[in-house]
Amino acid sequence: MNVPFYGHVRQYQGMKSEIDARIQEVILSGQYVQGPMLKKFEEELAAYAGLKYAIGVGNGTDALWLTFLSLGLGEGDELITNANTFFATAEAMWIAGCTAVLVDCDKETRCIDPAAVRKAITKRTKAIVPVHLYGQCAPMREIRKIADEFGLFVVEDNAQGIDARGDDFRIGELSDAVCISFIIQKNLGTFGDGGAIWTNHAYINDKVRKLRNHGSSKRDVHSMGFNSRLDDLHAGILSAKLKHIGEWSDRRIAIAKQYEIGLKGCDFLDLPRARPGYRHVYHLYEVETKDPADRNKLLDYLNKNGIDAKTHYSIAIHMQEGFPWGKDARVVTPLTNAEKSAASCISLPMFPELTDEEVQYTIRTICDWPKPK
Ligand SMILES: Cc1ncc(COP(=O)(O)O)c(C=O)c1O
Questions:
Q1: pLDDT per residue over 127-161, tens digit each?
Q2: Which residues, in sequence order, are CB contacts of 10 under 8 Å at separation 6+?
Q3: Cβ(59) to ligand 1 under 6 A?
Q4: C-beta of 82 in contact with ligand 1 (< 6 A)
Q5: How many CB atoms lie within 10 A of CB 357?
Q6: Residue 267 C-alpha to ligand 1 middle, in angstroms?
Q7: Any idea which architecture 245-367 has in CATH?
Q8: Do 8-242 and 245-367 agree at the fold level?
Q9: pLDDT of residue 312
Q10: 236 lines ligand 1 (CB under 6 A)
Q11: Which helix H or strand E contains 319, and what residues bound it?
């Protein structure tokens, strides 16, 4: 059996008529950039989050750095995030001219460790950027408390956690802004690139809307800006998909339960841990081999048996060759948990259209692993 890692085509086949109708609607409207479909999707997205504003931009990386610029952040300002995230979290800080400060993650959830954040704060610290890694909310209450104590901005990197929730907080409730990615493999993904920002602050909304459109909010009137807009075609596709996000997350959670039950006897693996009461939406189902020396052997075995397992992320940001390429960065040690995670992580197939047979085959294959001595 072959078990794929992504299910985009299966998802499209399951809702072809809905997506095709939106694409036609946009094409026939004659307006493709900042047109009516983008406006409609932004309104739906804001209502879905229970936040005042949603602003569509070109991708999740732009969502982050445009937000940093809208907050007036730049050279000399330190922004704290975890070292075990996708590269773009730090990259966006560098694009904005800021200093990326990389700290350790929590041993169990792999989200940012509030104690490590506290240790990293200096006079130059301006913002904390927690990542809802793998689809689980970062400990936002603890992060908010630190931010209030030191007068810092909080920008959530929510590229991976759309539809996730904390125990008694929603995404966006405890921060200044939330940045989203709609690249195809995300839980809400388009057929290409896309991104958005959620915020309750009118000044962030106004500033980002101008920045994304050549510094313009009125025809022929410009200040310095960029071109980073969410096309109406993508907005239409995402609008059709947004209606399904709840049921897709529920299916991801059900698959995670199957993995949890089936793999609990595998003493060579650590399984993902959801914080009690949190809605973890499993953008990725990331297991770790207890012994980092086993990781590549198990990954190779899975791939040879038709299971398209991968790694997220096998090289922590500060371990990338050439880091930090002349950019301003600070690493706050120890980074023991982030480095252990990089050395031992494996992502198992996880998408809503995965069949129970594929999940059970993956479980059986892992359980039957003839662990090399
Ligand atoms: C945690 C995280 N931050 C930022 C990004 C950047 O998003 P994009 O690829 O849309 O620029 C991604 C995903 O790609 C991500 O996973």
A1: 999 999 999 999 999 999 999 999 999 999 999 99
A2: 351, 353
A3: yes
A4: no
A5: 10
A6: 32
A7: Alpha-Beta Complex (3.90)
A8: no
A9: 97
A10: no
A11: none
Residue 187 CA, ligand 1 centroid: distance in Å: 12
Residue 131's closest CA among 164, 85, 62? 85
Instruction: Confirm or reject: Cβ of 183 under 6 Å from ligand 1.
Output: yes
**3-state DSSP helix/strand/coil % of the chain, to nearest 5:** 40, 15, 45
Question: What is the tens place of the pLDDT at every residue in 4-44?
Answer: 999 999 999 999 999 999 999 999 999 999 999 999 999 99
Residue-range domain boundaries for the chain = 8-242, 245-367
pLDDT at res. 373: 75
Does the structure show a pLDDT above 90 at 92?
A: yes
* pLDDT level of residue 371 (50, 70, 90 thresholds): confident
**Residue range 8-242, CATH number:** 3.40.640.10
Q: Which of 61, 111, 191, 231 has most ligand 1 atoms within 8 Å of its beta carbon, as the pocket-test mutant?
A: 61
Choose one of 66, 156, 183 to mutate for the ligand 1 pocket test, by most ligand atoms within 8 angstroms of C-beta: 183
Q: How far is the CA of 34 from the centre of ligand 1 (A)?
A: 22
Given strand 99-103, what is the order of strands in its sheet? 53-57, 195-199, 177-181, 153-157, 125-128, 78-82, 99-103, 329-331
* Distance of CA 221 from the midpoint of ligand 1 (Å): 32
CA quadruple 115, 120, 126, 129: dihedral, nearest 10: -50
Question: What pLDDT band is residue 220 in, cutting at 50, 70 and 90?
Answer: very high
The per-residue pLDDT for 306 is 98
Cα(159) to centroid(ligand 1), Å: 5
Predicted confidence (pLDDT) per residue in 179-209, tens digit:
999 999 999 999 999 999 999 999 999 999 9
Nearest CA, atom 9, ligand 1? 60
Verify whether ligand 1 is closer than 6 Å to residue 131 (CB atom): yes
Q: Map residue 367 onto helix, strand or coil.
A: helix
Residue nearest to atom 7 of ligand 1 (CA): 60
